[in-house]
Each structure stands twice: as C-alpha cells, then as structure tokens.
Amino acid sequence: MLDHSSDLAIENQPAQGTEGRQAPAKPADLLTQILLSLRLEGVEYGRCVMHAPWAVAFPARRVARFHFVGHGGCWLRTPTSDWIELKAGDAVLLPRGGLHILASSPEVPSVDIDTLARKEVAENLYLVGGDPHETPRADAGAREVMFCGAMRFNLDPLHPLMAMMPDVMRACDLAQRDPSVPAMLEAMEREVTLDRIGACGILARMADVLAASIIRAWVECACSDSTGWIAAVQCPRIGKVLAAIHTEPERDWTVPMLADLMGASRSSFADAFTRAVGESPAKYVAKVKMFQARRWIEHDGMRVAVAAYRLGYESEASFSRAFKRVMGQPPSTMRGRGLEAPA
C-alpha cells in the first residue's frame, strides 16, 4: 500500500446569503464540507486493455474500487443490480468494494481479475490484459481500455458515513462534465506506461482527484434520488449538520445544539434528520464518535483513557460501555490492532 493520502475535497466556497441569511448551498459545496474528514490511501492502480469478448469478476475486498472507461464500452453488474451499460467517459466508484463484474457483453462468462496477465510497471502499478501499444490482431474483437484502481478510505466500511453511500456511484459521461478529466486520464496513462521515477506517487494523487470527481459528478447527476446519502448532501440544512458532526466528532453535540445549527425546533430537526439519514441524531452522533475513537485507538495507538477524555466522557468506564454498545467489543481489544489488510 502506498504511504500517502490526499484530501477528497474541492475548494470550499460557502454560499453567502443576504441580510444576514445564508443562501442555500449547492450540493458540491456541502459535499466539500462533509468529505473534509475523508481521505484515501492508494492500494493499487492499473490500466486494463481488453479485447472482446471478455468478462472479469472483481471479488469483494475491504477497499474502494473505481473504474473509468477510457475507450470503447462495457457492462457492469453487482449482486444487487442488473447489468448497467458504461460508455467511454463514464466512471463508477464502489465505496465498499463489493463483488462486481465488468464485461464486454452480459452473456460472456467471467473469470477472476487476478487470473489475467499483468505487468508490473512500478510498485502497485500494473498493465492488465495486454500491451497498450500492441496492434490488434485481425481476428481480435474491439479493444476496450479502462483505468481501474483500488483505494482505501480512512474510514471503516461500517462507518455511518460510508454506510449511507450506495454500493455503486456512477458518474455518467464524466469526461464531458469535467473538462479536466481527459487531460488527467492522459497524464495517468503516461505514468502507467512509462517507467519513470516517482510515477507511483504521482499517479496515486491523480487517482484520488479522479475519485473525488466521480463523487462530485454522482451528486450532481443523482438529483432525482431523494433518499439516503444523496438526500442528506442535497439538503443544505441537513448537510450543514452532518458537516459539523464529521468536522468536530469530539465535540459534545446535543440535539438542541444541532437543531439550532439547522435553524429548526428540536422535534422538526429530529424528524428531518431521521428521514434523510435513516437514524436519530443522537444515534448517529454516537456512532461517529465511536468510529473516531476506534481509529484513534487502532491506528494511532491512543490510550483508551485519552480517547475517553477527548470525546468528553467523565470516566473511562462510561466511555467503554458506550463504545461496546456501538462497536460490539470493548475498546481495549482495538488498541494497536489496526485494520485488516485488504484480502
């Protein structure tokens, strides 16, 4: 895994209202705030060159996966969805890295991605399925070129923010929506195909930007979706509350405080939050706090007593009870363990 991370955030430009009121923010602005706490760490990246007919299965892993169709087209299927057609310029992000299949057509039997020939260009950089400079044979099918990556969010897949995301985020015609994408993909292809010093780190940073672009484009495309994560992001008032919770998880958030932040009564705030997010404000705040504590304890080696103090608990015992209630295990079992390496 690459020892690097970069923000999944676009420059934040909050909308300012008139006469002391704040104007409704655009979804992308709220997305910026909510994703400030999200970071990505590179696992591996590859340029896939495939000749039809083909179909590859990507097994479930504890990483996020993204695919960008650079040339040609393909089909995507997950265990919970029908076949989805992807065209050149389309991109998809699977935040939890669930099982999925990419194919030149739905009827082609799939093989595991790990069985395909791959050439390592640099550490964690691969050419998969063929030489990008080869001349296709006369009897070969159409050539599809995709850029694929596996990255790990700094959040546990069960984190409430991750749990609110759909299994698949599709950004239709990303290349046309964001003019910078084609140039970025061209630069990424150069880094993959040329054995240059520092290619791995440069490519990883560009891949992070691409993943952020996919999420932003998905939010902009999915305006008809009125439930779950997209509903929360697109509602300026709920989005403001979520952004505050994730920006300062250690703060002693109460329902009255969050209701004031939203500018609503306690009851109307609680109802609106529960409808958009799927659980009560108190339960959501508790989950965010405990997942933050888990990261401190697992990855930073923080002592349980210090985590309890930072989250505002009066005693280590009360914190441990709350942690076990949310996480199912006492915090002492997490210390120094770290997340499992991706399978």
Task: Report on this structure.
By secondary structure, the chain is an alpha+beta fold. The chain has two domains: about 5-230, Regulatory protein AraC (Jelly Rolls), CATH 2.60.120; about 250-335, Homeodomain-like (Arc Repressor Mutant, subunit A, Orthogonal Bundle). Helix content is about 40%, strand content about 20%. The chain has twelve helices and 13 strands. It has helices at about 25-35, 160-165, 175, 180-195, 200-220, 230-235, 235-245, 255-260, 265-275, 280-300, 305-310, 315-325, and strands at about 5, 40-50, 55-60, 65-70, 75, 85, 90-95, 100-105, 110, 120, 125-130, 145-155, 170. The strands form two sheets. Strands 1, 2, 4, 7, 10, 11, 12 and 13 form an eight-stranded mixed sheet that branches. Strand 5 (about 75) and strand 6 form a beta hairpin. The longest helix is centred in the middle third of the chain and has 23 residues, at about 200-220. It is globular and about 60 Å long. The chain starts with a strand and ends in a 16-residue tail after the last helix. Residues about 1-30, about 130-140 and about 340-343 have low confidence and may be disordered.
* Quaternary form: single chain
Helix fraction? 25-40%
So what's the CATH class of the largest domain?
Mainly Beta
Sum up the overall morphology in one term.
Answer: globular
The CATH architecture designation of the largest domain is: Sandwich
Write a concise synopsis of the structure shown.
With 343 residues, the protein is of the alpha+beta class.
